[in-house]
Amino acid sequence: MNKIFTTASLFIALSGLASAAHQLTPESNVIFGDRDGFAITNSMIMVWMATGIIVLFCRAATKKMTMVPVGFQNFAEWLIESLYNFFGGILGDHLVKRTFWFFGGTMLLILITNWLGLIPGVGTLGVMGDDDKVTYLLRGGNADVNVTAAMSIVFAVLWFYWAVSENGVKGFFAHIFAPKGDFSGVMRVGMVAIFFVVGLLEFVSIFIRPVALSFRLYGNVFGGEQVLETLMAMGGPYFAFLPALPFMFMELLVGLLQALVFTILSAVFLKLICEHSDHGEDGAH
Amino acid sequence: MYTILAANVFTKILDDFGVTAPLFIAQVINFIIVLFVLKKFAFGPIQAMLEQRQNRIAEGEEKLKRIETQLAESEERSSAAIEEANTTAKRLIDEAKDSAAALSEQKTQEAIASAQGILQKAEQSAKAERSQMVAELKQEFGRLVAATTANVTGKVLTDDDNKRINDEAVASIEG
């Protein structure tokens, strides 16, 4: 960090000026520390900012809570309740009660991080090093594979924990490998073989899911930022904002859609593995 | 060989995208902390309030159901009580009517008896008075006849004369 600031001059540029010469790199920039050791990156700062905004919003909404909600509290309750009901529709009553903290938190975090990435200065405000490389002070949180991969891996671990706790170890493997349907005789043997192969494929897909989740989110957000930068470069030094303006609205939508896609897919993956146990419970009730 | 190739490709991808173990681990820890903070300070209070409100609504609905049941029971009980009261009142009215009729009859009979007694007494009294008056009249008439006879005849009448004249006079009246 010190090295960067001592050897660099402060570089504040409007997007068009900066992006013309300095395109965003696929990797995040280290603001403090060492990339191979302890480091604070510009994407980390954005995630913290997003967390801070969500927490501040919720704290403000819950400061003077009343049984009959008004104003800010009303909006916050509407938001949380809508999210809860939305995920409840996918996961069912039992699972959503257990897992809403993850899906709700991840959804809001991705959404706010994506939208924060559109604020002027993010990806454009930075310091220029000796090697003519710009270290951007802020970067869209999800335009860093480390962030999206961390989310995906945490989900994958939680998915495994929830799946095993809902089905049991035996039920978990049976859910993947056991034949579905009622077969007997030779048919049963054949089905066992087929479903074993299907289970292997399912197993591979389970390991691919976090990779797909993380790169889908990263690709869309990073791609969006690249598009905005390129379009701003087309506008020249004085009208850089103009070509990118329509795409800012599109990026708002993309930010929401990607938050939805990540969390909906995660919820569906969880629902698929827990489906049997849920049926069992419904039957029990 | 394929494994080495795959590993090389994987490492290259990670390098290209700036993924390093320390950064990745830091982001994982970061994300877990963020989730915890959101759960504790963001969703926790709001969800608690939503749950509290839901419980209150459920309690309210439960109470409403209980009140409806109690109301239905109460209505049933009150209608049964009203029915019973009506029956009792009807019975009492009938009894009162019967009793009143019996009492009235009794009083009427008593009045009749009393009136008859009064009449009888009056008759007896009248009879006695009449007999006394008749006796007195007879006596007076006899005395007057005897006095008239004595005045007309100029004779002093003895007690036997007086008795005979009286008897004759009375006999003539009665005859």
> Helix and strand succession of chain B?
HHH
Distance between the termini of chain B: 180 Å
Main β-sheet of chain B: number of strands, strand sense, barrel status? none
N-to-C SSE string of chain A, H for helix and E for strand: HEHEEHHHEEHHH
Residue share in β-strands of chain A: 5-15%
Overall shape of chain B: it is rod-shaped
Bin the strand percentage of chain B.
under 5%
Overall pLDDT of chain A:
82
Summing up helix and strand content along with how strands pair, one would put the structural category of chain A as mainly alpha
Our Rg estimate of chain B from Cα atoms comes to 65 Å
Care to count the β-strands of chain A?
Answer: 5
Give a verbal description of the structure.
The complex is a heterodimer of chains A (285) and B (175). Chain A has eight helices and five strands, in the order αβαββαααββααα. Chain A has one domain. In chain A, 36% of the residues are buried. Helix content of chain A is 72%, strand content 6%. By secondary structure, chain A is mainly α. Chain B is built from three helices and no strands. Chains A and B meet through α3, α4, α5 and α6 of A and α2 of B.
Question: Secondary-structure blueprint of this entry?
Answer:
The complex is a heterodimer of chains A (about 280) and B (about 180).
Chain A: H1 2-7, E1 9-12, H2 15-21, E2 30-33, E3 39-41, H3 42-61, H4 71-91, H5 93-116, E4 125-128, E5 134-136, H6 145-177, H7 186-234, H8 241-284
Helix pairs in contact in A: 2-7, 3-4, 3-5, 4-5, 5-8, 6-7, 6-8, 7-8
Chain B: H1 2-16, H2 21-153, H3 159-174
List keywords for this structure.
heterodimer; A: 285 residues; mainly alpha; three-stranded antiparallel sheet; 8 helices; B: 175 residues; 0% strand
